Amino acid sequence: MATIISGKELSASMKAEMAAAVKEFPAKYGRAPHLVVVLVGDDPASVSYVTGKAKASAEVGIRNTTIRRPAETGEAELLALIGELNVDDGVDGILVQLPLPKHIDEDRVIAAIRREKDVDGFHPLNVANLWLKQPCTLPCTPKGIIRMLQRAGVEIAGKRAVVIGRSNIVGLPVAKLLLDANATVTIAHSRTRNLPEVTREADILVVAIGRPRFVTADMVRPGAVVIDVGVNRDPGTGKLCGDVDYAAVEPLASVITPVPGGVGPMTIACLMENTVECFLRKMER
Length: 285
Ligand SMILES: Nc1nc(=O)c2c([nH]1)NC[C@@H]1CN(c3ccc(C(=O)N[C@@H](CCC(=O)O)C(=O)O)cc3)C=[N+]21
Fold this sequence. Notes:
Its EC number is 1.5.1.5, 3.5.4.9. Residues 139-281 form the Tetrahydrofolate dehydrogenase/cyclohydrolase NAD(P)-binding domain. The protein is of the alpha/beta class. It folds into two domains: 29-118, Leucine Dehydrogenase, chain A, domain 1 (Rossmann fold, 3-Layer(aba) Sandwich), CATH 3.40.50.10860; 140-264, NAD(P)-binding Rossmann-like Domain (Rossmann fold, 3-Layer(aba) Sandwich), CATH 3.40.50. 41% of the residues lie in helices and 15% in strands. The strands form three sheets. The chain has a six-stranded parallel beta sheet with strand order 1-11-8-7-5-6. A three-stranded parallel beta sheet has the order 3-2-4, with helices on both faces. Strand 2, helix 3 and strand 3 (63-69) form a beta-alpha-beta unit. The chain is globular and about 55 Å long. Bound molecules: 5,10-Methenyltetrahydrofolate. 5,10-Methenyltetrahydrofolate binds next to helix 3, strand 4 and helix 11.
């Protein structure tokens, strides 16, 4: 029987704490923080994520503007919109929802966001500063994962951590944060040979590979801490499911995160935190 880390509960307490602080901002700074979310196209998953971000903003007292553009929007047009938001003093955070339509270069769009307003922590200068251990905006999902480990009282230093997945958004930055917390880190991926053998070495297993129920019981060391970053639709039921076969793995893990109600809500809470941090850095400059 594993301890289940509820991202739902932990994110709710983070949001409540932020709301109490943000309530004082209009009197202190003249206004509330303002997050602008840009959504290009109408992918249903993206629409639902963007709605989640607006809902969380309301809970915390952050002003949220969601700008929607048709899927055919040109890259130049999107870059022009970002340029306007960059120089708008009333905008503290800019998030461009990913993935973008194929005709738009995501890297170019991310790099166009003013670094001080990059609440995702995806801008090249934020990424560089993460790897140089300089002050930076941390990407929301990795930040949320570390928060969950801390909340569960998981000691990271000296442990073996295995991350499955090497994306810029989750795998690479979470590996860096675990390394900075003095874990011994392995980054595994689709081309890793003998993957079950590698993952069985893990005291802490972070799974961000994007395949429903990919991690089975034979891949997990008894007593391991298992963090499931997956957000998949079950091909059969259409329900949300993780990258971990939860029913099979939960009985042998010491600590595990569920899907839904795990890493996802923590990502959103950390996005709110990053928005508040960008706002405060600006106001205190
Ligand atoms: N620029 C950008 N920043 C992102 O942070 C970003 C993005 N693009 N593109 C897509 C991914 C995905 N993502 C999720 C956030 C919350 C949940 C979440 O809260 N999930 C709930 C369930 C939600 C539901 O029921 O659909 C849960 O796991 O309990 C899921 C996924 C942020 N992303």
